[in-house]
Design a protein that fits this description.
heterodimer, A: about 325 residues, mainly alpha, B: about 300 residues, 6-stranded mixed sheet, globular, binds adenosine-5'-triphosphate, binds magnesium ion
């Protein structure tokens, strides 16, 4: 077994592009679910809105890339308003139903043959829509060391991506520790009590939905740019549930937990995959038990097992406060 | 204190002892407010005026419609018919948060402490007109830090009065039931209401704590605030209320000072049923005798 290769792959994944994307998606979801108690089951929809806004604006309509980011943010605000206006006055579960459905509608529309010319159908859009971004890449060659490797483009995406994660995390930290954040947390606990104290709960929930959604669409920008392509089925409900996994791994309602959660998530996925793959190839695991082609599925099974163990032995997540969870049960 | 009591009693000198009677200076007026749940008429209030600056008790048997009436007045529920106004402002279709902003703040029968906020955060949350509560300003702490410090100081002052200061950094969920009731009242005061509406503030509060709660409520009257409270604890009703309103089956059946209420035949019937037997008679007698003793003490 080539442990150096395993380490290289795993380390690359732990701080790589996918981790950035999942961290951003989970930061947005943390605003919704962790701080405000909004059950958004359509975070994938916000990523799709971001990703497609960029790809379609640039590739189909020839809009400059940096304008397309503004379009993406605007679209995600509109998406949040469409989701929020009818549901945020209702009980929490209505938002869950509407968001999961809306995200699926977006995916179905983007992959439908009817809009093939604009949205690219089930193949999505591939091209060079990230050109303006990569033109700024100061790295002429990639990173090539024995323990970590990035192509020149990936290196640029990762560096810009982590910078964005850092900025957004800092802003989140300021916001959730302000009186504004206090209102959100109070809404999570009991919105009727917050109303009785003279706060416009609906407005705060809408603001939270919009902000978390915009952060989700920024994750979508990174997703689209890093691959210079968008594919509808990347934005399925599985993406939303992975985002929840990331958030719960780290521990909800902590500013750093989405980052740590995303790192652990991708560390485990890639580490398990590489170990299994090499063990099977080297004959340590007999072929009749696990074939090379099954490794991809089995890593998710092990991941699920790991999550179950985490929920049993550390239900508050990595960063969460056990005391808070105990209180919850009492309440 | 005695003097205050006399003063607030003066409000009611010329008030008729009848349901829906006119008050000297009403802060809250409800007119023909009704609410049906299916076939059940939970609230059917012909007319009610609540005197400013006094402590008014709203009593009545279980299911009389007291909580539902509170919900209607504060915008948590919509009536089938009716109008009501606070300080002359019509409150129909005004959402709960605006009712609170207007200065009419309520608490809940089932206490609503915000569990995963600390006690002091519960308090600070309730302060009015916070700069840092705007999304944009929240990003610039220097615009709200000073106000936040003031809010914390005021919160701590009130917590001291309510003997919760030692708990200020604990999560609200770690408080006992009675302490949560105290916190809810303390928190409501942070809103600086003109009218405070308490739904069973004494439920589950031990006698020692009860006494201090009573003092706090009297204190509110001394500060010129109006209190309207729902309570089953007759001792409390007798001790602190200036005026008592009795509800049964959604209707207001009697109004008057505590002493007149306790001997009101209709009230006794409503509480004990039309065919009350000897044992219950004894109960009503003991209520009456308690009232008598109260009279002697004064
Ligand atoms: N949401 C509801 N749906 C149906 N019926 C309701 C609802 N809320 C209250 N009721 C009914 O309305 C009546 C009045 O209830 P309410 O809670 O106002 O009584 P209450 O006077 O506060 O009683 P208690 O002293 O026990 O708190 C009851 O008969 C109750 O069953
Ligand atoms: Mg009640």
């Amino acid at each position: 077994m080539d442990f150096l290769f395993i380490a290289q792959q795993t380390l690359g994944a732990t701080i790589g592009v996918n981790t950035v994307i999942f961290a951003l998606a989970a930061i947005g979801l943390n605003m919704h679910f962790g701080y405000t108690g909004l059950l958004n089951f359509g975070q994938a929809g916000f990523l799709a809105v971001g990703a497609y806004s960029v790809a379609v604006s640039v590739e189909t309509y020839g809009v400059p890339l940096f304008i397309s980011f503004l379009i993406g943010i605007l679209n995600s605000v509109i998406f949040a308003l469409i989701l929020g206006i009818p549901t945020l006055r209702l009980r929490a579960d209505y938002l869950a139903i509407v968001t999961i459905a809306a995200a699926e509608i977006i995916r179905k529309v983007t992959r439908s043959a009817t809009f093939n010319d604009v949205l690219g159908g089930s193949d999505g859009i591939s091209g060079k829509f990230g050109k303006d971004f990569f033109d700024f890449n100061p790295f002429k060659s990639g990173l090539e060391t024995s323990i970590i490797r990035f192509s020149a483009n990936d290196l640029w995406v990762v560096i810009v991506g982590w910078t964005i994660v850092a900025i957004i995390t800092f802003l989140m930290w300021v916001m959730v520790n302000s009186p504004w954040g206090r209102v959100l947390k109070a809404i999570r606990e009991d919105e009727d009590a917050v109303r009785s104290l003279g706060k416009n709960v609906y407005l705060y929930k809408m603001q939270s939905l919009i902000i978390g959604g915009v952060i989700g669409s920024i994750a979508g920008f990174v997703y689209a740019l890093s691959r210079q392509s968008v594919q509808p089925d990347n934005y399925s409900t599985a993406l939303t549930f992975f985002t929840y996994t990331v958030l719960i791994l780290g521990g909800a309602a902590r500013v750093f937990s989405p980052i740590i959660g995303a790192m652990i998530f991708w560390f485990l996925i890639v580490f398990i995959e590489q170990m299994l793959r090499q063990a099977v190839t080297a004959g340590y695991i007999p072929e009749w038990l696990i074939g090379v082609n099954q490794v991809g599925q089995i890593r998710f099974m092990l991941m699920g097992l790991g999550l179950m163990l985490l929920m049993i032995f550390r239900p508050q997540g990595i960063f969460g406060d056990k005391k808070e969870l105990a209180l919850d049960a009492r309440a | 204190m005695q003097e205050r009591n006399n003063n607030s009693a003066e409000f009611f000198l010329n008030v008729e002892l009848a349901p829906g009677s006119k008050k000297m200076d009403p802060i809250l007026i409800a007119d023909r407010v009704s609410r049906n749940f299916g076939g059940l008429t939970a609230v059917d209030v012909e007319h009610l005026e609540v005197q400013r600056g006094a402590i008014t008790a709203l009593i009545g048997p279980n299911g009389a419609g007291k909580t539902t009436f509170f919900n209607l007045l504060t915008g948590y529920d919509k009536p089938n018919h009716g109008e009501w106004s606070f300080n002359g402002k019509n409150l129909k279709d005004i959402p709960p948060y605006r009712v609170a902003k207007l200065g009419m703040v309520r608490t809940f029968q089932l206490t609503k402490a915000l569990y995963r906020l600390t006690v002091i955060q519960n308090m600070a949350l309730a302060a009015k007109d916070q700069k840092g509560e705007s999304l944009l300003r929240s990003l610039f702490p220097f615009t709200w830090r000073k106000q936040e410090t003031e809010i914390y100081l005021r919160s701590e002052e009130i917590l001291k009065k309510f003997k919760l200061i030692d708990k200020k950094d604990d999560f609200a969920a770690a408080l006992s039931g009675g302490q949560r009731k105290l916190l809810e009242l303390a928190r409501a005061l942070m809103v600086e209401p003109e009218l405070i509406m308490l739904d069973e503030p004494m439920a589950g509060v031990n006698p020692a704590l009860k006494q201090s709660l009573l003092e706090h409520i009297k204190d509110l009257r001394a500060q010129g605030k109006t209190v309207l409270f729902v309570e089953h604890d007759m001792d409390m009703v007798m001790e602190i209320s200036d005026w008592v309103v009795v509800m049964a089956q959604g209707k207001i059946i009697a109004e008057g000072p505590p002493k007149s209420i306790i001997n009101n035949q209709e009230v006794i019937t409503a509480y004990l049923g039309a065919h009350h037997d000897a044992e219950l008679d004894e109960n009503s007698e003991s209520m009456a005798s308690k009232n008598l003793k109260g009279g002697v003490n004064q």
